């Protein structure tokens, strides 16, 4: 927007007066620019005048200063402004009749003893902000309205974001409540936990086995027959039969003829157990930050597709990477969980990075097992006992899991003797039930 810098001139491009154009001061011609400033009679000392934003309208130039070019008026390169109005309009002189009327009103009106004169600001006078435009008004009503409208929009946006955040939190709470109801329904936590006479037998068997372990400091084999009866009683219990799901929404529903089980070692208490995978010499990962898994040639082992070095290390016994972990290390419950997650289920889509598998493995391992600190040595020891079981039906066929020969079909009993709780971890036919 352009404003005229001449004294007593209020022309601007906003008014859009017909035939009025605006011309900038010739700053690149000092002599001519000085003549323009001298003609306007504006003070230049201490003021930023003239500047690149200073203009004069065409009202201050005579017609001889213009020439026609392509159907429009153009200012000549030697034009000097000469038309200005430096004299303000004087107010009208009061007439004789008006003076007499004012004198009569002054004589008749009572004069107070003490009067306090308050000078009211003249509404026609505006505060001068810039040196160029003396008609600019500070804090005009339109500007104040725009300022408050911006503030209102800002606070409305904050309010909308807060409401959206509260809505998302409520949806999360409802989602977690549904998940908790499903878990309670599966594990019979609504009325009572699965703590029956068979669990008392399991605890007695565990205590007896631990006592025998203390009596055999040389690491001799403990008699595994002590676990047979409690585990068999657990899977024959009516609460377990009616609540333990074999497949989605399908419970066990019948008693077992026999149960084969074996203890699973769980002595690892740190995720440093998997540091060998990140060793660059082993050529399993190639990015230290993202921990991406290095790919390999396509192959199949026991029905599992191998497309990277990680699954080659887990499955291919003929590969050199398979020797990275010994047989005892592979029997650890932490390694088993990691292997089950990496192999996945029926419709599993492999991750390119290794970190998601490690995070979920750590979360499962930490929540399934219970640990405590020994007072004498100060070391962390896992107090939970993990058993791997295979349940057989009446026809001496495996019913849980149905195909125990596959690596990702398993049933684990995780027993906490202090909290008196048994957790069953089952996976088969693409279903995970806890």
From TrEMBL:
<keyword id="KW-0238">DNA-binding</keyword>
<dbReference type="InterPro" id="IPR006612">
    <property type="entry name" value="THAP_Znf"/>
</dbReference>
<keyword id="KW-0966">Cell projection</keyword>
<keyword id="KW-0206">Cytoskeleton</keyword>
<dbReference type="GO" id="GO:0008270">
    <property type="term" value="F:zinc ion binding"/>
</dbReference>
<protein>
    <recommendedName>
        <fullName>Cilia- and flagella-associated protein 300</fullName>
    </recommendedName>
</protein>
<comment type="function">
    <text>Cilium- and flagellum-specific protein that plays a role in axonemal structure organization and motility. May play a role in outer and inner dynein arm assembly.</text>
</comment>
<comment type="similarity">
    <text>Belongs to the CFAP300 family.</text>
</comment>
<dbReference type="Pfam" id="PF05485">
    <property type="entry name" value="THAP"/>
</dbReference>
<dbReference type="Pfam" id="PF14926">
    <property type="entry name" value="CFAP300"/>
</dbReference>
<dbReference type="GO" id="GO:0003677">
    <property type="term" value="F:DNA binding"/>
</dbReference>
<dbReference type="GO" id="GO:0005930">
    <property type="term" value="C:axoneme"/>
</dbReference>
<keyword id="KW-0863">Zinc-finger</keyword>
<keyword id="KW-0963">Cytoplasm</keyword>
<dbReference type="InterPro" id="IPR029416">
    <property type="entry name" value="CFAP300"/>
</dbReference>
<keyword id="KW-0479">Metal-binding</keyword>
<keyword id="KW-0862">Zinc</keyword>
<feature type="domain" description="THAP-type">
    <location>
        <begin position="1"/>
        <end position="84"/>
    </location>
</feature>
């Amino acid at each position: 927007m352009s404003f005229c810098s001449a004294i007593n001139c209020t022309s601007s491009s906003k008014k859009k007066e017909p035939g009025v154009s605006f011309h900038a001061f010739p700053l690149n011609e000092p002599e001519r620019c000085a003549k323009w400033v001298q003609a306007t009679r504006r003070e230049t000392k201490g003021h930023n005048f003239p500047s690149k934003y200073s203009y004069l309208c065409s009202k201050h130039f005579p017609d001889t200063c213009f020439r026609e070019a392509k159907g429009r008026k153009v200012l000549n390169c030697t034009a000097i402004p000469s038309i200005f109005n430096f004299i303000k309009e004087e107010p009208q002189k009061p007439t004789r009749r008006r003076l007499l009327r004012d004198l009569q009103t002054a004589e008749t009106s009572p004069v107070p003893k003490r009067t306090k004169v308050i000078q009211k600001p003249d509404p026609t006078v505006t505060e001068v902000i810039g040196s160029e435009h003396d008609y600019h008004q500070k804090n005009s009503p339109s500007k104040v309205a725009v300022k408050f409208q911006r503030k209102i929009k800002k606070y409305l946006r904050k309010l909308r974001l807060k409401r959206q955040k509260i809505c998302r939190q409520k949806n999360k709470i409802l989602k977690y409540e549904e998940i908790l109801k499903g878990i309670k329904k599966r594990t019979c936590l609504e009325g009572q936990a699965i703590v029956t006479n068979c669990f008392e037998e399991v605890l007695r068997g565990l205590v007896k086995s631990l006592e025998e372990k203390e009596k055999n400091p040389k690491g001799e084999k403990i008699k595994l027959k002590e676990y047979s009866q409690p585990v068999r009683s657990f899977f024959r219990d009516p609460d377990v039969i009616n609540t333990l799901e074999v497949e989605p929404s399908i419970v066990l529903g019948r008693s077992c003829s026999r149960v084969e089980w074996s203890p699973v070692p769980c002595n690892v208490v740190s995720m440093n157990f998997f540091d060998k995978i990140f060793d660059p010499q082993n050529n399993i990962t190639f990015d230290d930050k993202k921990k991406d898994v290095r790919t390999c040639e396509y192959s199949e082992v026991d029905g599992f597709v191998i497309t990277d070095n990680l699954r080659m290390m887990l499955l291919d016994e003929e590969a050199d990477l398979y020797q990275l972990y010994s047989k005892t290390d592979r029997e650890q419950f932490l390694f088993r969980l990691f292997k089950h997650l990496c192999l996945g289920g029926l419709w599993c889509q492999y991750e390119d990075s290794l970190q998601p598998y490690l995070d979920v493995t750590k979360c499962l391992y930490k929540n399934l097992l219970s640990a405590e600190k020994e007072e004498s040595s100060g070391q962390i020891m896992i107090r939970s006992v993990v058993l791997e079981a295979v349940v057989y039906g009446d026809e001496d066929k495996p019913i849980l899991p149905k195909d125990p020969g596959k690596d990702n079909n398993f049933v684990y009993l995780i027993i906490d003797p202090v909290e008196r709780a048994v957790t069953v971890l089952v996976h088969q036919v693409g279903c995970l039930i806890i």
